[in-house]
Amino acid sequence: MILRSFIFLMFLILFSCEKDDICLEGTPATPRMIILFKDHENPQTKKGVSELLIRGLGQEDNLAVYSGDSIAIPLRNNYEFTQFEFTLNTSSPTLSDSLQMNHSQFDTYINRACGYKSNFVFENPLFYKLSQDEGWIKRIEKIRDTLSDEKSSHLAVYH
After folding, report:
1. How many domains does the chain have?
2. Which of 49, 48, 54, 103 has its CA nearest to residue 75?
Protein backbone atom coordinates (compact mmCIF):
# COMPACT_ATOMS: atom_id res chain seq x y z
CA MET A 1 0.00 0.00 0.00
CA ILE A 2 2.81 2.40 0.86
CA LEU A 3 4.61 1.53 -2.38
CA ARG A 4 1.44 2.23 -4.43
CA SER A 5 0.96 5.56 -2.67
CA PHE A 6 4.58 6.48 -3.31
CA ILE A 7 4.34 5.58 -7.02
CA PHE A 8 1.08 7.51 -7.36
CA LEU A 9 2.66 10.55 -5.66
CA MET A 10 5.70 10.40 -7.94
CA PHE A 11 3.42 10.14 -10.98
CA LEU A 12 1.54 13.27 -9.89
CA ILE A 13 4.74 15.22 -9.27
CA LEU A 14 6.28 14.29 -12.63
CA PHE A 15 3.25 15.19 -14.68
CA SER A 16 2.22 18.29 -12.76
CA CYS A 17 5.05 20.45 -14.17
CA GLU A 18 4.24 22.66 -17.11
CA LYS A 19 6.74 23.64 -19.77
CA ASP A 20 7.13 27.14 -18.36
CA ASP A 21 8.03 25.83 -14.88
CA ILE A 22 11.60 25.18 -16.02
CA CYS A 23 13.97 27.76 -17.54
CA LEU A 24 15.77 25.78 -20.24
CA GLU A 25 19.46 26.20 -20.94
CA GLY A 26 19.90 28.38 -23.99
CA THR A 27 16.95 30.62 -23.15
CA PRO A 28 18.00 34.21 -23.99
CA ALA A 29 19.12 36.08 -20.89
CA THR A 30 20.11 39.68 -20.27
CA PRO A 31 22.94 40.35 -22.73
CA ARG A 32 26.31 41.74 -21.81
CA MET A 33 27.95 44.68 -23.59
CA ILE A 34 30.63 43.48 -26.01
CA ILE A 35 33.61 45.80 -26.33
CA LEU A 36 36.04 45.42 -29.23
CA PHE A 37 39.54 46.86 -28.73
CA LYS A 38 41.09 48.55 -31.78
CA ASP A 39 44.29 50.35 -32.73
CA HIS A 40 43.96 54.14 -32.49
CA GLU A 41 46.51 54.71 -35.27
CA ASN A 42 45.04 52.07 -37.61
CA PRO A 43 41.25 51.98 -36.88
CA GLN A 44 40.60 48.91 -39.05
CA THR A 45 42.94 46.73 -36.99
CA LYS A 46 42.03 44.96 -33.76
CA LYS A 47 44.49 45.65 -30.97
CA GLY A 48 44.30 43.41 -27.95
CA VAL A 49 44.87 44.48 -24.38
CA SER A 50 46.87 42.63 -21.78
CA GLU A 51 46.25 42.54 -18.06
CA LEU A 52 43.16 44.79 -18.23
CA LEU A 53 41.43 45.09 -14.86
CA ILE A 54 37.77 46.08 -15.14
CA ARG A 55 36.11 47.27 -11.96
CA GLY A 56 32.49 48.31 -11.68
CA LEU A 57 32.29 51.57 -9.70
CA GLY A 58 29.61 51.43 -7.04
CA GLN A 59 29.63 47.64 -7.26
CA GLU A 60 31.21 45.26 -4.78
CA ASP A 61 33.05 42.92 -7.10
CA ASN A 62 35.80 43.31 -9.68
CA LEU A 63 34.87 41.84 -13.01
CA ALA A 64 38.13 40.38 -14.16
CA VAL A 65 41.70 40.72 -15.24
CA TYR A 66 41.50 40.16 -18.96
CA SER A 67 43.72 39.88 -22.03
CA GLY A 68 42.40 39.78 -25.61
CA ASP A 69 40.80 41.89 -28.35
CA SER A 70 37.19 41.84 -27.08
CA ILE A 71 35.31 41.36 -23.84
CA ALA A 72 31.68 41.02 -22.72
CA ILE A 73 30.74 42.91 -19.55
CA PRO A 74 27.34 43.34 -17.87
CA LEU A 75 25.50 46.64 -17.51
CA ARG A 76 23.60 47.55 -14.35
CA ASN A 77 19.90 47.01 -14.88
CA ASN A 78 18.77 48.99 -11.86
CA TYR A 79 20.24 52.35 -12.98
CA GLU A 80 20.29 54.46 -16.15
CA PHE A 81 24.07 54.34 -16.24
CA THR A 82 26.94 51.99 -15.44
CA GLN A 83 30.35 53.18 -14.28
CA PHE A 84 33.55 51.27 -14.94
CA GLU A 85 37.20 51.77 -14.24
CA PHE A 86 39.45 50.26 -16.91
CA THR A 87 43.03 49.82 -15.65
CA LEU A 88 45.57 48.71 -18.22
CA ASN A 89 48.70 46.77 -17.21
CA THR A 90 47.99 45.96 -13.58
CA SER A 91 51.77 45.98 -12.99
CA SER A 92 53.72 49.26 -12.82
CA PRO A 93 53.08 51.74 -14.48
CA THR A 94 49.30 51.61 -14.53
CA LEU A 95 47.01 53.62 -16.79
CA SER A 96 43.34 54.03 -15.83
CA ASP A 97 40.21 55.50 -17.35
CA SER A 98 36.91 55.75 -15.51
CA LEU A 99 33.82 55.94 -17.69
CA GLN A 100 30.08 56.26 -17.17
CA MET A 101 28.08 54.47 -19.88
CA ASN A 102 24.58 55.98 -20.31
CA HIS A 103 21.72 53.65 -21.21
CA SER A 104 18.02 53.10 -20.82
CA GLN A 105 16.48 49.72 -20.16
CA PHE A 106 13.41 47.88 -21.36
CA ASP A 107 12.40 44.47 -20.08
CA THR A 108 10.92 41.59 -22.05
CA TYR A 109 8.94 38.85 -20.34
CA ILE A 110 10.36 35.40 -21.16
CA ASN A 111 8.14 33.04 -19.10
CA ARG A 112 7.24 32.25 -15.52
CA ALA A 113 10.40 30.26 -14.79
CA CYS A 114 12.91 32.56 -16.50
CA GLY A 115 11.31 35.86 -15.59
CA TYR A 116 12.39 38.96 -17.50
CA LYS A 117 15.25 39.71 -19.87
CA SER A 118 16.66 43.24 -19.80
CA ASN A 119 17.60 44.95 -23.05
CA PHE A 120 19.45 48.26 -23.22
CA VAL A 121 19.52 51.27 -25.54
CA PHE A 122 22.57 53.52 -25.44
CA GLU A 123 21.71 57.15 -24.71
CA ASN A 124 23.28 60.35 -26.00
CA PRO A 125 25.86 61.16 -24.89
CA LEU A 126 27.05 57.57 -24.86
CA PHE A 127 29.58 58.10 -22.08
CA TYR A 128 31.19 60.58 -19.71
CA LYS A 129 34.83 60.35 -18.84
CA LEU A 130 35.02 60.44 -15.04
CA SER A 131 38.82 60.41 -14.69
CA GLN A 132 40.66 63.72 -15.12
CA ASP A 133 44.12 62.43 -15.99
CA GLU A 134 45.37 61.25 -19.37
CA GLY A 135 44.45 57.59 -19.67
CA TRP A 136 44.95 54.92 -22.27
CA ILE A 137 41.59 55.15 -24.10
CA LYS A 138 41.81 57.55 -27.05
CA ARG A 139 38.28 57.25 -28.45
CA ILE A 140 35.05 55.23 -28.07
CA GLU A 141 32.74 54.44 -30.97
CA LYS A 142 29.20 53.10 -30.74
CA ILE A 143 28.74 50.20 -33.18
CA ARG A 144 25.15 49.29 -32.26
CA ASP A 145 22.48 51.43 -30.53
CA THR A 146 20.62 48.54 -28.92
CA LEU A 147 22.06 45.87 -26.67
CA SER A 148 19.68 42.94 -27.12
CA ASP A 149 22.03 40.03 -27.86
CA GLU A 150 25.68 39.00 -27.75
CA LYS A 151 26.09 38.13 -31.43
CA SER A 152 28.30 41.10 -32.37
CA SER A 153 30.18 44.00 -30.80
CA HIS A 154 28.38 47.00 -29.34
CA LEU A 155 31.32 49.38 -28.75
CA ALA A 156 34.81 49.89 -30.11
CA VAL A 157 37.51 51.24 -27.81
CA TYR A 158 40.51 52.75 -29.60
CA HIS A 159 43.80 52.80 -27.75
Report:
1. 1
2. 103
Q: Which residues form the domain of 114?
A: 31-158
Residue 124 placed within a domain: yes
Residue 4 lies in a domain: no
| 65: helix, strand or coil | strand
What confidence category does residue 112 fall into, taking pLDDT thresholds of 50, 70 and 90? Answer: confident
DSSP letters spanning 87-138: EE-SSSSPEEEEEEEEEEEEEEEEETTTEEEEEEEEEEEEEEE---S--S--
Condensed to tens digits (0 to 9), the pLDDT of residues 25-80 reads: 877 889 999 999 999 999 999 999 988 888 888 776 666 678 899 999 999 888 89
1 lies in some domain = no
Amino acid at 122: F
Beta-bridge partner residues of 97: 86
Q: Pseudo-torsion of CA 136, 142, 143, 149, nearest 10°?
A: 100
Q: How confident is the model at residue 95 (pLDDT cuts 50, 70, 90)?
A: confident
